[in-house]
Design a protein that fits this description.
- This protein is of the alpha+beta class.
- It folds into three domains: about 200 residues, 2-Layer Sandwich (Heat Shock Protein 90); about 160 residues, 2-Layer Sandwich (Ribosomal Protein S5, domain 2); about 180 residues, Rossmann fold (3-Layer(aba) Sandwich), CATH 3.40.50.670.
- It is built from 21 helices and 22 strands.
- Strands 1, 2, 3, 4, 5, 6, 7, 8 and 9 form a nine-stranded mixed beta sheet that branches. It has a five-stranded mixed beta sheet with strand order 10-11-14-12-13, with helices on both faces.
- A hairpin with a 6-residue loop joins strand 1 and strand 2.
- The longest helix is centred in the middle third of the chain and has 31 residues.
Length: about 650
């Protein structure tokens, strides 16, 4: 037998190190700046330019914005009547202000160090306009200021020539025309309805702004202006959702001193709570400290009203969730230096904003409740009903457990590490992949409220299987026994033993496959758990980054790149990639994935059960042609860098 030669290591020299300059990083890693190159990322380009235009209104320099979707559907123009981007030559960089803003990352007048007049702004990172330019095959900027009109064209972030003075012009403002680059995005056609919905929202949030929307694809022109502001927006949200309100009157309040805060809210008969929050006019779908302040104010104000008026709720403990059930709220805050989570600004992190919102909303809501006693009593009555319904549900579960506590515990799977608490409202079941990960999870959990059930490998594909056949699989049978509800026709919600059922899998293709198989089983055979919001997916980190004495955690490659981009240029980073959860120390797993104070959970929901049914059938059904069709139709959406082949 001949010896196998040792593998020859590729040379790695200084000249192999790449330095991305100018806007190259944006084109190389667009997801770091706009979240992805899908439809959401495409529209994020529009939001970046639109937010810059609205910033002129926010700071008192404009009152009109016009958005035009051109006939091709792949080009957009956003124009405002603000001051116009400066066009004079920068003394240090020897370029016009317009060229700097559109070609240099972190160039702008919103960093708080210049007298630019931007007290509040949605675009504080100085990358929005230049990112749009970098990801557009064509961009034309037109500026009207100082009695003249100027224009400059770009392609993929590169100027096609110097800024030109077109001629004299009366008026002022900025107009940006751009066409996204089809070599970057999977699709480059804008959705007219998505644009329209965003602009309608903005017209309510900025009640003094006049917005014109021209859709040349459909020939539609809309003039949007809503001086009614947030109260009118709230009415629209409640009406559109067809949620009967508890009271005819809604609460609203605003202040314009210091940090501007506006809020409007109303209790409805819905079992859900709905929040629309904005920071400097930008939607924050993941909430943040401003939403936390509002929720805290709701709890305190209602509890104060109950205590002040000595409303009897004998034997009934009213929780914050009871108080917030059915609330529909719109919150808008303006912050001088907002700290967003990432460039896409999904969540606000400013700690001081929570207290500011709480301290403003709580006394205002207390006063409103006291001055509108009929409405307040109706609201409290609705809250009491919510609390009683919750108590009744818990009592039913307790009764089931009380009748057969011995058999309930004795019949549990041997590999289940159960928790001590029997109150399903506070308990969680982590379904983990493999004994190794299960061991780490068992060591790192809070054994009072958190249970762990390890699974061996991939469970049975239950698509197109009867419940009886599914339960013939030992892993699935153990899972159903641990949850306590039974499955299929024998499902009984009252037997539920855990309030949260959390899928905790490795962050690789096998982990995704196992999660999909489990979700299919829950959807087909225990659908009530999904419908009532008990099923979650954990988001364990894939990377650990040690920067000096600080440890940072990244969910995936894009998150890692985002973290690194925010570090100092000379920062030394020690990087560890986890092959599986079993490689993580129990302490690290607890800190990043198990502890409710630090973890991220994705709640599983089926907004459209028909679409979910179709997706499971295509992905996991017996008919191979469905999968072939699905793959062929969706192949263009796949990120080749992330395929696990």
């Amino acid at each position: 037998m001949s010896a196998v030669p040792a593998p020859r290591l590729a040379a790695y020299r200084t000249e192999d190190i790449q330095v991305l300059e100018g806007l190259e990083p944006v084109r190389k890693r667009p997801a770091m700046y706009i979240g992805g190159v899908d439809n959401k990322g495409l529209h994020h380009l529009a939001w970046e330019i639109l937010d810059n235009a609205v910033d002129e209104y926010i700071n008192g320099f404009a009152d009109h914005v016009q958005v035009t979707l051109h006939k091709s559907g792949t080009a957009l123009t956003v124009a405002d009547n603000g001051r116009g981007i400066p066009v004079d030559i920068h003394p240090k960089h020897k370029k016009s202000g317009l060229e700097l803003v559109l070609t240099v990352l972190h160039a702008g007048g919103k960093f708080g160090e210049t007298d630019s007049g931007y007290m509040h702004s949605g675009g504080l990172h100085g990358v929005g306009a230049s990112v749009v330019n970098a990801l557009s095959k064509k961009l034309v900027a037109t500026v009207k200021r100082d009695g003249f009109e100027y224009q400059q064209s770009f392609a993929k972030g590169t100027p096609l020539g110097k800024i030109e003075k077109i001629g004299p012009f009366r008026g002022h403002g900025t107009s940006i025309y751009f066409e996204p680059d089809e070599s970057i995005f999977k699709h480059v056609k804008f959705d007219g309805d998505v644009l329209k919905a965003r602009l309608e929202d903005m017209s309510f949030i900025h009640s003094g702004l006049h917005i014109t929307y021209k859709n040349e694809v459909t020939g539609e022109t809309l003039e949007l202006a809503n001086p009614g502001g947030l109260p009118a927006f709230l009415t629209k949200l409640v009406t559109d959702a067809q949620k009967p309100s508890v009271t005819e009157a809604a609460f609203s309040a605003s202040r314009d001193t210091g940090s501007k805060i506006e809020v409007a809210l109303q209790w409805t008969e819905s079992t859900e709570e709905t929040y629309r929050s904005y920071v400097n006019g930008i939607r924050t779908p993941n909430g943040g400290t401003h939403e936390n302040g509002l929720k805290s104010a709701l709890r305190k104000a209602v509890n104060s009203y109950i205590e002040t008026h000595d409303i009897k709720v004998k034997g009934l403990k009213i929780t914050a969730e009871d108080i917030r059930e059915g609330v529909v709220a719109v919150l808008s805050v303006f912050v001088r230096e907002p700290q967003f989570e990432g460039q896409t600004k999904q969540r606000l992190n400013n700690p001081d904003v929570e207290g500011a919102v709480d301290n403003f909303v709580r006394p205002a809501l207390e006063a409103w409740l006291n001055n509108n006693k009929t409405a307040a009593d109706a609201i409290v009555g609705r809250i009491v009903l919510a609390a009683r319904a919750r108590e009744a549900s818990r009592a039913a579960v307790t009764e089931v457990k009380r009748k057969a506590p011995g058999s309930k515990r004795l019949s549990l799977p041997g590999k289940l590490a159960d928790c001590k608490s029997t109150n399903w409202e506070e308990t969680e079941l982590f379904i983990v992949e493999g004994d190794s990960a299960g061991g780490s999870a068992k060591q790192g959990r809070n054994n009072v409220t958190q249970a762990v059930l390890p699974l061996r490998g991939k469970i049975l594909n239950c698509e197109e299987q009867t419940t009886a056949k599914a339960l013939g699989n030992q892993e699935i049978a153990d899972l159903v026994t641990a949850i306590g509800t039974g499955a299929g026709e024998k499902f009984h919600y009252e037997g539920l033993r855990y309030g949260k059922i959390i899928l905790l899998m490795d962050a690789d293709s096998d982990g995704c496959h196992i999660s999909t198989l489990l979700l299919d089983f829950f959807f087909r055979h225990m659908h009530e758990l999904v419908k009532r919001g008990h099923v979650y997916i954990a988001q364990p980190p894939l990377f650990r980054l040690n920067v000096g004495k600080e440890t940072l955690w990244a969910r995936d490659d894009a998150h890692k790149a985002e973290i690194k981009a925010g570090l100092k240029a000379n920062a030394k980073v020690e990087e560890t990639r986890f092959k599986g959860l079993g490689e993580m120390d129990a302490k690290d797993l607890a800190r990043t994935t198990l502890d409710p104070k630090f973890r991220i959970l994705l709640k599983v929901d089926t907004d459209n059960p028909i679409d979910a049914d179709q997706a499971f059938m295509e992905l996991l059904g017996k008919e191979a042609e469905h999968r072939y069709k699905f793959i062929m139709e969706k192949a263009e959406h796949a990120d080749a860098d992330k395929l696990d082949v």
